[in-house]
Amino acid sequence: MSSRSALSDQRGRSSVRSAVRALVFGLVTLVLITATASGIARVVVSGAQRDLSGHIRPAQLGSWQLYRAFVDEETGQRGFLLTAQERFLRPYEAGQRQVAVLESRLRAAVTDRRYQSALAAAVAAGDRWRREAAEPEIAARRAGPIPTAQVLPMALLGKKLFDELRKGLDAVTARADALADARLSVIRSAQRAASIVSIVVVVLALAVALAAPLILRRVLDRPLGDLMGQLDAVSNDNQAVTIKLHGPAELQAIAVAAEKMRAALVRNAAELVEVERRLAVVAERDRLAAELHDHTIQQIFGMGLALSATASRAAPAVRADLERLIGDSDEIIGKLRRIILDIRDTDDAENLRAAASVLTREAGWALGFDPAFEVGGPVQVTNGEVREAALAALRKMLSNVARHAHARQATVRLFVTDGQLTIEVQDDGVGVTATSVRGEGLTDLEERAARLGGEFSIRPAEPVGTTASWRVPMYATEPLLTHGATAGPGRSR
Question: Quick one: CATH architecture of 279-485?
């Protein structure tokens, strides 16, 4: 690069950075001024409001309550003087207690010296009125009717002392109101100052906003326009366009990054074609696996149930041949499922709930009715061996119902509790008795469960029929025997 070009680049770099720094500094300064002014205003307002709501307002209310308490005392004392009945002294005594409570509360609530002085003067005036007028009058009235010659002097003294008390209470309430007005004035002043600062900052921000386009246009307009045109061409699939370096250093850095992205897009286009081809292969394999699972396996299973139903009605000589065919169908299903897992090339287990639902529905052809299917709990078995064993056990139990129960209704329940997967088949058939012969079918179900750390049980249902339960841990890992090593559907329930 020539010295002239280097100088030009340095000027452009300096111009962009200086402009951006000036704008950023100006905006940050305005933000800081606004934030500082707002923060100070919030602190002042918050403190004044806190003092107002926490101290001044309670002091105002307490001052009026103190006034009312003394008035209650005076009213009760006057009523006792007129009637000599002790019940009229209750307001007097209650007022005394309330005055003591309010005095203590107000002294703790407000620290203003003038308020405390006015409060102390008012309380002292109240004590003087109580000591020199109220208490002597009450004592004289308790002794009997007050002589006429003493009534007027006592009334005048009481009025004089209570008027002094009123003046003291007026001074207390007036000082509380003055304190509240002062706090409100502080709040208004702080809010007004914050508003003025905000207006000034807004004006300055508008000035910066108006100046910014003029500054940036001179420094960035043309180089940025060229760069945007090149990027627009690339975005319209014109990947042959090369992003040229032009303008300030900042835009050149963007141009370099854009050029790298363009080159990467060209490289990734070929990779995308290869990925799409692989996805098509995977989709075809999934389609084949689904075809085997949804049609071929279910047809063989239906054929096995039909053979089971036929074997239960066939002669002994034919039944043995049918038993072998049933065993072969189970072995074929097992091999097909292993083929499906190999085709899908994944460790994820099939959805046991869906597979069990399909088996239950397919069994309706051999049973002569559609069994009910119920699911409870989070039945998400990811262990392939547990899943295969569970489906094989369900096929065996449905086969037993078709062959031996002579049932008209049946219910398949699939649920998980406490980490245990349970498959339960209940029918309303002939049921089981203590003398029922345990054939290969029940033995096979017991062995399948035992190999996975579970159990199989069969018991009479209420009111009639049989309930078969096959239960194993959901996360059992013991290897299962292959389908070829297991017997076909058993010869008895």
Answer: 2-Layer Sandwich (3.30)
